[in-house]
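PROTEIN SPECIFICATION:
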Amino acid sequence: TETVVRRTMSAGERFYVYDGKIIYEDGNNWIEIITERGDRGWISSNLVTIERAGSVYEPYYFPVKPFRNMHEIYDSNAFGKYVSYQSCGFHTGFDYVEYNDISIRAVDDGRIIHIGPLHLSGPNVGRGDTSIVLWHNQLYPEHKYIYTTIAHNTVPESILAAYRKNGYVDVKAGDVIAYQASKGYSTGDHLHFELIQTDKPYTGDWTSPWIGGCAVYLDPEVWFKW
């Protein structure tokens, strides 16, 4: 459910949006804003003066989508949907099903910092044993940590070998880093894709990877320029 910004403003009144960014400008004096918590809303640019500085960011989109032909995929489970099997009570990622090219690509430059289980809460409950945490260290380096995660997947042997040797793997946008599969708590082949934005780095503990609770998860769909 979108949060719609509705506010009557007086002449000369200032309205600040902190820790957010403009994600869309429709060309008709309306802008869409997303905050660091994932709240989204629209406001008329006639009512505000946008100061593109401080903690308000220019529009940013991931340059690459996780599957090469995203228009051919099936969206099986959207972000934010109520689910009983996740501790947050909502679906923390977006599920995609690809029926042709099952190669999963890095959506932006970054560093793979974890390959292994993720969020295991019981036998065979979780993301499988080769889930990926990818740190996009070039985004907002001044004070934000941006991560994407890939789950239920398998991993190319070359990626696994490099990770076992170095403890990390540096990748570029578009590199194939995984393949769609059905590992862990899954009823069929699909990609569970998450976007995390947080003030604290990955904890190193795959059973509790993020500090900040459920607020760290953002809707990944709004970060792709469709």
Q: What stands out?
A: The chain has a mean pLDDT of 78. The helical segments are 157-166. Residues 157-166 form the longest helix (10 residues). The chain has two domains: 1-59, 70-223.
